UniProtKB/TrEMBL annotation:
Keyword Hydrolase tagged: no
Documented EC number(s): 2.7.11.1
Biological process annotations from GO: negative regulation of fatty acid biosynthetic process
Main enzyme class: transferase
Annotated source species: Propionicimonas paludicola
Name listed for the protein in its UniProt record: non-specific serine/threonine protein kinase
CDD domains (alphabetical): PASTA_pknB, STKc_PknB_like
Domain of life: Bacteria
Taxonomy of the source species: Bacteria, Bacillati, Actinomycetota, Actinomycetes, Propionibacteriales
Sequence intervals crossing the membrane: 377-398
Length: 663
C-alpha cells in the first residue's frame, strides 16, 4: 500500500503539517506530521470522515485521548494533544521511528525463552503502569508494540483504552479487539477488566515462544470459539523439537506462567499486569541462574493476588466475531444482561428471575418429568431463535453491508473513476512512484481488489508517477559530513568511505565519488567516496657517510626543507659527506625540516718551530696544538730541542704524533 494520501501537505488545526501516511486502521488513519509550534515530529491520528459525524464515535474518540494522556511511562507511546479539524477529531502522539513487535516475531519466532522474556518485560511494565492508573488497553497485539531504532519497546494505542471504572463501550453491545488476542470474557459478555490485557500478553508470549498463535481457525468466528472453549497447550509442547533438552528448552515455570496468563477463566489469571510483571521477573531470574526445572516456582506462577470477593460474570457462547483476524474491528453482539418485561426479546423462560423454591417431594414424579421436558423444549426453542437472530445480525454486519472492491489494476484515472461509479463507489486519488507501472496508471488501491468495502464507500486509488529517480549531487571538494547531508537531501545514502593520501587535497576532503554528479539513480542508492588523508608522510633515510648533495636532492624532491648545519672536521668521513643528520629515522610530514652536519675532512695543524727550546718547553708547545709527542735523543746529556719530524712549517693531522729530537 502506498503512503500517498490526499491529506499529505495539509495543515491540521493550523499547527500540524501532514508529511505522509503511516498506517490506516478501523477508526482512524495515522500520519507522520511536523508540529510547527514546537518544531518536532509527531504521529497524527485522524478519525475517518465517515465517523466524524457519528456523535457516539466522536465521544469515544475524545474519551480515548483523555484516557491515554494520563499515562506517562518510558514504554508507552505518549499522547501530546487532541482537537478537531474540519469536523475530523484527531489525536497527536509521540512518533516512534522503527518497526513493530510483529516484524520481530516474523523474523525471530520461535524465540529462545531469554529473548522472549527480554521483549515481554518492558511491554508488561507499560501495561502495569496503565493498570495502576486505572486504564485498560483491550487491544494488545504485536502490531501495537513499537520497536524504536534504538531498540526501545513502546506500547501504542492506549487511545483505545477505557478507564477500568468507567462504563465501557462493550457494555452497550460493541466488541473492540483483535480476535487472535481477545479474552474469552470479551467474546461472551463484552466486559473488560485488567485481566483481559493479561490474557492478551499471555497469548503474545506464547506466540513469541512457539512461532504460532494458540487459537486458529478458518474464520474469525472459529478463532473466537476456540478462545472461549479451548485451553492453551503448554508452550514447551509446541516449541521446536530440536530445542528440547538444550538450553533453549522452555522450563516448566515458564509453561506455568503462560498458561496462567492465558487461562480461559479470568479468576485463574494474574489480577493485573503488575502481578504478571512480577512473575516475568522471577522467570527471567531463574533462567539467568540456569534453572531448567523448578516445580515450586511453577506453582507460584499460578498465584493471582486477586481479591476473593471479586465477582465474575458467567460466560455464554457468541456467534459474531470481527471479520479480520489481524485488524482491530467492531462487532455487534446480543447483550447477556436481563431484559425488562415488555422489551423485545423478553420472556418468562429467560433464567434471570427468581423462582419460588418448591420441594421436589411436593410434586408428583410424572408432573416433574413433564415440567422438565417442557423446560427443555422451551430452552431449545429460545436457543434456536437467538441463534437465528444472531446469524441474521452477523450476516448483515459482516456481509450484507459490504460489496467487493473491484480490480483497478493498470487503469488510468479516468477508467478507474468510471469503474468506481459503475459499482456505486467513489475514489480518492493519490500518487506515488512505481518501477513497474507506467505513468498515469493505477499502482494500488485501499482497500485492495477483492476486499470488502461498504456500499457507497470510498476507494483510495494510487496513480503512478513513474520510476523514482534522484540526481547525484556534486561531492568532490566537500567534507564527508557535507557530502552525507547533500546525499540525504537527494534521498540517497552515503556508502563506503575510503581514506587515501593526496598531495593536492587537504585532509578530510572528498577526492572522488563512485557515481558522477547529475546521474539519475534510484532512491537510497549508496554512493562510495574517496577522502583525502592529506599529503603522504616522508620516510627518513640515513645519508651519514654519503655525499651531502645526494641527501639534499633526495629530501628536497620528497618535499622537506633541507638545512645545513655547521660543518665539522672528521677523520672518518670524507669532506663534503654527511657526518650526522636530524631526524635520523621515522616518518615526517611534508614541509618538515631536516638538518645535516657536513664533513670538512681531517683537521691539519702547522708544526711550530721548537729548535733551541728545552725538551719540556718544546713538548708543551706541541701538545698545546693537539699533537702527540715522541722524544728521540741524540747524545745522552743534552736537553735542547734540535728539531721535529715532520719539520717546522709542515702540516700534520691534528692529534697525530710528532717526533721531537732532543740533544
Amino acid at each position: 500500500m502506498s503512503n500517498a494520501d490526499a491529506l499529505v501537505g495539509h495543515l491540521v488545526d493550523g499547527r500540524y503539517e501532514v508529511v505522509r501516511k503511516l498506517a490506516r486502521g478501523g477508526m482512524a488513519t495515522v500520519y507522520l506530521a511536523n508540529d510547527l509550534r514546537l518544531t518536532r515530529t509527531v504521529a497524527l491520528k485522524i478519525m475517518h470522515d465517515n465517523l466524524g459525524s457519528d456523535a457516539d464515535f466522536v465521544s469515544r474518540f475524545d474519551r480515548e485521548a483523555r484516557s491515554a494522556a494520563r499515562l506517562s511511562h518510558p514504554n508507552v507511546v505518549a499522547v501530546f494533544d487532541q482537537g478537531t479539524d474540519a469536523g475530523r477529531p484527531y489525536i497527536v502522539m509521540e512518533y516512534v521511528e522503527g518497526s513493530t513487535l510483529r516484524h520481530v516475531i516474523s523474523r525471530e519466532a520461535p524465540m529462545p525463552p531469554q529473548r522472549a522474556l527480554d521483549l515481554m518485560l518492558p511491554i508488561a511494565a507499560a501495561v502495569a503502569a496503565a493498570h495502576e492508573a486505572g486504564i485498560i488497553h483491550r487491544d494488545l497485539k504485536p502490531e501495537n508494540v513499537l520497536l524504536s531504532v534504538r531498540g526501545q519497546l513502546k506500547v501504542a494505542d492506549f487511545g483505545l483504552a477505557r478507564a477500568i471504572t468507567a462504563h465501557t463501550a462493550t457494555a452497550q453491545g460493541m466488541l473492540i479487539g483483535t480476535v487472535s488476542y481477545i479474552a474469552p470474557e470479551l467474546v461472551t459478555h463484552g466486559r473488560a477488566d485488567a485481566r483481559c490485557d493479561v490474557y492478551a500478553l499471555g497469548v503474545v508470549l506464547y506466540e513469541m515462544l512457539t512461532g504460532a498463535k494458540p487459537h486458529t481457525g478458518d474464520t474469525p468466528i472459529q478463532v473466537a470459539y476456540s478462545h472461549v472453549h479451548n485451553d492453551l497447550r503448554a508452550p514447551s509442547t509446541a516449541a521446536p523439537e530440536q530445542w528440547r533438552n538444550t538450553r533453549q528448552a522452555i522450563p516448566d515455570y515458564l509453561d506455568a506462567l503462560v498458561l496462567a496468563a492465558a487461562a480461559r477463566q479470568p479468576a485463574d489469571r494474574p489480577a493485573d499486569a503488575s502481578v504478571l510483571l512480577d512473575h516475568l521477573r522471577q522467570a527471567r531470574a531463574a533462567l539467568e541462574s540456569g534453572i531448567t526445572s523448578d516445580p515450586a516456582l511453577a506453582a507460584r506462577m499460578q498465584e493471582t493476588s486477586l481479591d476473593p470477593n471479586t465477582q465474575l460474570t458467567a460466560q455464554v457462547p457468541v456467534i459474531g466475531v470481527p471479520a479480520d483476524v489481524q485488524r482491530t474491528t467492531t462487532m455487534r453482539f446480543t447483550p447477556s444482561t436481563p431484559l425488562s418485561p415488555g422489551q423485545p426479546g423478553a420472556t418468562d423462560g429467560m433464567p434471570y428471575f427468581d423462582r419460588p423454591v418448591i420441594s421436589p417431594a411436593a410434586v408428583p414424579l410424572a408432573q416433574r418429568q413433564v415440567k422438565r421436558r417442557r423446560r427443555g423444549l422451551i430452552t431449545l426453542i429460545v436457543f434456536l431463535v437467538i441463534t437465528a437472530l444472531l446469524g441474521a445480525s452477523s450476516w448483515y454486519w459482516f456481509s450484507g453491508r459490504f460489496t467487493t472492491t473491484p480490480d483497478f489494476g493498470n487503469m488510468t484515472q479516468a477508467e478507474a473513476q468510471a469503474l468506481a461509479t459503475k459499482n456505486g463507489l467513489s475514489i480518492k486519488v493519490a500518487t506515488d512512484y512505481s518501477e513497474d507501472v507506467p505513468v498515469g496508471q493505477v499502482i494500488s488501491t485501499d482497500p485492495k481488489a477483492g476486499d470488502q468495502i461498504l456500499h457507497g464507500g470510498e476507494v483510495i486509488v494510487v496513480i503512478s508517477k513513474g520510476p523514482e529517480r534522484y540526481p547525484v549531487p556534486s561531492l568532490v571538494g566537500r567534507s564527508v559530513e557535507d557530502a552525507r547531508l547533500a546525499l540525504e537531501a537527494n534521498h540517497l545514502t552515503l556508502g563506503k568511505t575510503t581514506e587515501v593520501y593526496d598531495d593536492s587535497a587537504p585532509a578530510g576532503q572528498v577526492i572522488t565519488a563512485s557515481l558522477p554528479a547529475d546521474r539519475m539513480v534510484k532512491r537510497d542508492t549508496p554512493v562510495d567516496l574517496k577522502v583525502s588523508k592529506g599529503p603522504a608522510p616522508v620516510k627518513i633515510v640515513s645519508y651519514v657517510g654519503k655525499p651531502f648533495t645526494d641527501a639534499q636532492t633526495y629530501y628536497q624532491t620528497a618535499g622537506l626543507i633541507v638545512q645545513r648545519g655547521e660543518d665539522a672536521f672528521s677523520d672518518k668521513v670524507p669532506a663534503g659527506s654527511v657526518v650526522s643528520q636530524d631526524p635520523k629515522k621515522g616518518n615526517v610530514e611534508k614541509n618538515s625540516t631536516i638538518t645535516f652536519v657536513v664533513s670538512k675532512g681531517p683537521e691539519f695543524t702547522v708544526v711550530p718551530p721548537v729548535r733551541g727550546l728545552s725538551g719540556e718547553a718544546a713538548t708543551d708547545k706541541l701538545v698545546s696544538l693537539g699533537f702527540k709527542v715522541s722524544v728521540q735523543r741524540q747524545g745522552w746529556f743534552g736537553n735542547l730541542a734540535l728539531g721535529t719530524k715532520p719539520g717546522e712549517g709542515k702540516k700534520a693531522k691534528t692529534g697525530s704524533e710528532i717526533i721531537l729530537v732532543i740533544g
